[in-house]
Design a protein that fits this description.
A 5-stranded parallel beta sheet has the order 3-4-2-1-5. Helix 1 crosses helix 2 and helix 3 crosses helix 5. The two termini are about 20 Å apart. The mean pLDDT is about 95. The chain has 9 helices and 5 strands; from the N terminus they run βααβαααααββααβ.
Length: about 220
C-alpha cells in the first residue's frame, strides 16, 4: 500500500535549486516510488517566496561582488577575499535563511565567481542571466509539479485555514512550546488538518529542517 507523505518547503526547494544544501538528498527522495506526495498552499507560497527572494538577494550580491572585484587581477589571493566579502555582505541581510542561501551559492559557484572577478563585463552579464534562468526554471517547475489537480507529482491542498490556532488550540499550544517558531507550527498543523479531513491512514511529514522540527522530535 502506498504511503502518504506531506512535504515541507525545504524538500521541494532543495529538489529545484542546484546550489541548495539539500539538493542531492531532495533529488534522491523524489526518485523514490510507492508514495503519494502532498503539501499545502502555505508551503507552496513559502517556496515561491524563497525563490523570488533568492533572486533579488543573489542579484544584489553579484552586483556588489562585481563592483568590488571587477578590477581584481591576482587569482592567487582571490578565494580568501571572496570568503571575507561574502561574510561581511551576508551579515547585513535581514534573514538568516538568505545568509545560508548566499553561503551555499558561493560554495557551489566559486569558479563562476572567480570568472566574474577576473574576467570581463560579459562574464558578469552571463552569470546574471544564469541566475535568473535558474530561478525562473524553479518557479516554472514548482507550478508544473505542485498543483491542486490530479495527476500531479505533489498534490497541493488549498483547503487549510489561514489561521489554524482556533481550530486546533491544544495541538498549537503543544507545538509552539516545543518549536517556538510559528511558521513551522502552521505547516505542521496543515499536515495534521489534511490528514484529518482529506486523507485516510497515517501521513509522514517529510522535512530536512533540523533546527526547528527534527531536533525537537515533533514528527
Amino acid at each position: 500500500m502506498s504511503e502518504n507523505h506531506f512535504l515541507d518547503a525545504n524538500v521541494i526547494i532543495g529538489s529545484l535549486i542546484s546550489w541548495d544544501a539539500q539538493y542531492d538528498r531532495s533529488v534522491r527522495y523524489f526518485t523514490g516510488q510507492g508514495m503519494f506526495r502532498h503539501t499545502s498552499k502555505r508551503v507552496y507560497g513559502e517556496c515561491t517566496g524563497v525563490f523570488e527572494g533568492s533572486r533579488r538577494v543573489l542579484l544584489r550580491y553579484l552586483k556588489e561582488f562585481y563592483r568590488r572585484f571587477n578590477t581584481f587581477n591576482d587569482p592567487m589571493t582571490l578565494d580568501p577575499l571572496i570568503e571575507r566579502f561574502t561574510q561581511t555582505w551576508s551579515a547585513n541581510l535581514y534573514d538568516e535563511k538568505m545568509s545560508r542561501i548566499i553561503g551555499n551559492f558561493v560554495q557551489t559557484h566559486r569558479t563562476d565567481l572567480r570568472n566574474v572577478a577576473l574576467g570581463s563585463e560579459q562574464n558578469y552579464g552571463d552569470f546574471q542571466r544564469q541566475i535568473r534562468k535558474a530561478i525562473q526554471y524553479a518557479l516554472n517547475e514548482l507550478d508544473c509539479r505542485c498543483t491542486d489537480t490530479n495527476p500531479t507529482e505533489i498534490f497541493r491542498y488549498d483547503c487549510c485555514p489561514h489561521d489554524l490556532t482556533p481550530v486546533y488550540p491544544t495541538e498549537y499550544s503543544s507545538l509552539i512550546s516545543s518549536l517556538n517558531y510559528a511558521p513551522d507550527v502552521n505547516v505542521l498543523l496543515d499536515s495534521f488538518h489534511i490528514k484529518r479531513t482529506m486523507l485516510q491512514g497515517s501521513v509522514h511529514f517529510v522535512t530536512t529542517d533540523w533546527t526547528h522540527i527534527t531536533r525537537n522530535k515533533v514528527v
